[in-house]
Design a protein that fits this description.
The protein has about 300 residues and is α+β, with helices and mostly antiparallel strands. About 20% of the residues lie in helices and about 30% in strands. It has 7 helices and 15 strands. The strands form 3 sheets. Strands 5, 6, 7, 8, 9, 12, 13, 14 and 15 form a 9-stranded mixed sheet that branches. Strands 1-4-2-3 form a 4-stranded antiparallel sheet, with no helix packed on it. The protein has a two-stranded antiparallel ribbon with strand order 10-11. Strand 10 and strand 11 form a beta hairpin. The longest helix is centred in the middle third of the chain and has 12 residues. The chain is globular, with a radius of gyration of 19 Å. The mean pLDDT is about 90.
Length: about 300
């Protein structure tokens, strides 16, 4: 275990500790509950229960678990489907709550561990904990994701993502109504200067360009199709929040808690809808799509009501 100090952001004011800390650290709610039961989460020196309510500005002392093994552990993931597989690539439909690969502070399932459980071979290129990974999705983002199975495929796909020749299409349900209904957000993104688990628009950050088109408006929210020209960490979430329209359910970036409760969302409404690539070996143009999962469909149905 290692001690870490965490400041509770405004978006988590009034939230239960297990829910908020899970989103702040990437740990599962059940693992946070175990930490609380062992006295591993404290405020002003007092151990907190998992149901304790947090206040914005609280400083938490958290005994975080040691890092996971460097290599993925075979772990079946319910609901993760293979959309396509050949000798060179595998395309998955990633559920929310699943990381792309093992990482420090995350003890939940990951795509590489799930593929290992399915006996799907991946490339050995890259760091040991993320071999074959050419592009990632956030834990709380669902949808289509590609992994390289061969070394040449890994190299070609990494270059394609780096040179922005891959078509990445997301759908995001955001609060309010985007005006204009079609536009581009061009603002540099970097690590938040005081909250290391967040990203932010900062001077000197990396170039980040997001194109959006509203495809449906409803009371209090709108559904947008988003094309990424770049692929920064949390890019869509940061850009939408910056223009005053955070993704519904995204407490980290200022979503309305009341709307989250109303829709039942415990993660951001953000889905990797489509991925278009040139096959790294054959040169064939390929497009893969992912349907909305049930939690996102439910939120849409709720917000469509007058």
């Amino acid at each position: 275990m290692s001690l870490r100090l965490l400041l509770v952001p405004d978006g988590f004011d009034g939230d239960r500790l297990d829910s908020a800390l899970a989103r702040m650290t990437g740990l599962s709610r059940s693992r946070v509950g175990e930490l609380c039961g062992a006295g591993g989460v404290r405020r002003d020196g007092e151990a907190l229960t998992k149901s304790a309510r947090l206040r914005a500005g609280d400083l938490l002392e958290v005994d975080l678990p040691d890092p996971r093994p460097a290599e993925p552990v075979p772990t079946p993931v319910e609901g993760m489907e293979l959309l396509y597989e050949d000798e060179d690539i595998v395309v998955v439909d990633k559920p929310a709550g699943v990381a792309a690969h093992p990482s420090m502070g995350w003890d939940g399932p990951d795509v590489l561990g799930a593929l290992k459980a399915m006996r799907v071979r991946v490339a050995t290129s890259g760091a040991s904990e993320r071999q074959g990974i050419v592009s990632r999705l956030d834990v709380g983002t669902s949808g289509v994701m590609i992994v390289a199975k061969g070394e040449r495929a890994y190299s070609v796909l990494k270059r394609a993502f780096r040179e922005h020749t891959v078509d990445k299409v997301y759908h995001a349900l955001v609060q309010g109504h985007l005006d204009p209904s079609s536009g581009t957000i061009d603002a540099p993104i970097g690590r938040h200067p005081s909250r290391e688990w967040k990203m932010a628009i900062i001077e000197g950050g990396r170039e980040s360009i997001t194109h959006y088109d509203v495809i449906e408006a409803m009371p209090g929210a709108c559904l947008a199709e988003i094309h990424l020209e770049t692929g920064r960490t949390h890019q869509i979430r940061v850009h939408m929040a910056a223009v005053g329209h955070p993704c519904v359910g995204d407490a980290t970036y200022g979503a309305d808690p009341a709307m989250s409760v109303r829709t039942g969302l415990i993660r951001q409404w953000l889905h990797a809808r489509e991925l278009g690539i040139t096959h790294p070996i054959t040169g064939e143009r390929m497009v893969f799509t992912s349907d909305y999962p049930s939690d996102l469909i439910h939120a849409l149905d709720v917000l469509r009501l007058p």
